Amino acid sequence: xxxxxxxxxxxxxxxxxxxxxxxxxxxxxxxxxxxxxxxxxxxxxxxxxxxxxxxxxxxxxxxxxxxxxxxxxxxxxxxxxxxxxxxxxxxxxxxxxxxxxxxxxxxxxxxxxxxxxxxxxxxxxxxxxxxxxxxxxxxxxxxxxxxxxxxxxxxxxxxxxxxxxxxxxxxxxxxxxxxxxxxxxxxxxxxxxxxxxxxxxxxxxxxxxxxxxxxxxxxxxxxxxxxxxxxxxxxxx
Amino acid sequence: xxxxxxxxxxxxxxxxxxxxxxxxxxxxxxxxxxxxxxxxxxxxxxxxxxxxxxxxxxxxxxxxxxxxxxxxxxxxxxxxxxxxxxxxxxxxxxxxxxxxxxxxxxxxxxxxxxxxxxxxxxxxxxxxxxxxxxxxxxxxxxxxxxxxxxxxxxxxxxxxxxxxxxxxxxxxxxxxxxxxxxxxxxxxxxxxxxxxxxxxxxxxxxxxxxxxxxxxxxxxxxxxxxxxxxxxxxxxxxxxxxxxxxxxxxxxxxxxxxxx
Lengths: 237, 260
Description:
heterodimer; A: alpha/beta; Rossmann fold; 2 domains; 6-stranded mixed β-sheet; 7 helices; 27% strand; B: mainly alpha; 12 helices; globular; ABC2_TM_bact-type (chain B)
């Protein structure tokens, strides 16, 4: 029960309409890239799925449950990694994990926390303040934290923004590995080199889906770039 | 409850890490108490007036008001930190957590009031060491009153934070809230003195929720209770918190403006 469905969603910020009669369906598990240039509606879609924002009309369904009827159990089944830093920089790595576990009501989280920190190469930094971590480690910590409740859905909004290509690739590989373990990963990005051949790709443009298919089906990076009006904003490094 | 405990734990830890904030919170009322208090003692004579059964020193009179200003500043500081969290994006973590938005705001409020109470206790201890004391039982009885006042002012801060879209606007708004609330209240001078000199101001003071918070603390410090103060503080807490919840609904202003 990890399907994400948006049905006929309208959303506007004041007079500015961002999504109009927008529908989207992300089925099952695997890695789905939501790709689009700035202003395509990616972050608004993220905020609607996460429940931070509510659509003006239409439905947002996660695992068959309407966002309005979402219970704590449903929310706990979703992990979110935001574009902005949401770590408490004054707390240590472990304290950030403890704070998050408290928010999610996780009692016996220590063992999983340790395993995840080790898996993402953060165990040595566990006592360090988040403020002292470099950009790559901070992003990893955000991912580790989101994975703490063992969610079936992981949604990441431009998680590698501002990082150098090597670290971006490492993080992308680690998240792809999570998708292969059965997590339904939705990766919001405008960077083509973070997408692998078999990933599902949804191309967004001006609040509408322009194309949908696997990366290979859409013709890879070149094919996708040729389909975009704002192709200069899609980078391939 | 786990989420509330986590939010309180984080707020207390953050407060302990920010030692300068703790010192600043205490310096302000101590300056009033030890410097202004000594200066105004001669200028402002005080009659025997409830809850006092005898003549008191001016410093003793202003202690409840200074407790009030501590929790008022603390409430606004917490609101500022919410605006900061919203501006930086870290508020999103709370917004997507499996807790209702009302519970999240309520937990924030309890955390803020707990920090305010710690500050007031420390202030009262310092005042005690300087010889400004009440009956020991008074401290115990005043604790719920201080906490309730801190909740009311924290809720006011939360409600105001829904109207603020940019961090830099916060200082200006606060000047229109903190100082008028503080000076147009009974924190520094009793109501009867204001009535003698400026009847219009006395009306403003009577309608100021901060006045009722201060008076609630003042009376309970002497083991007394004026119901009107308690009713006004509880009612204002309800109204301010209701406004904050309304403002933080995902369809409305504070979030929609911010997360565009």
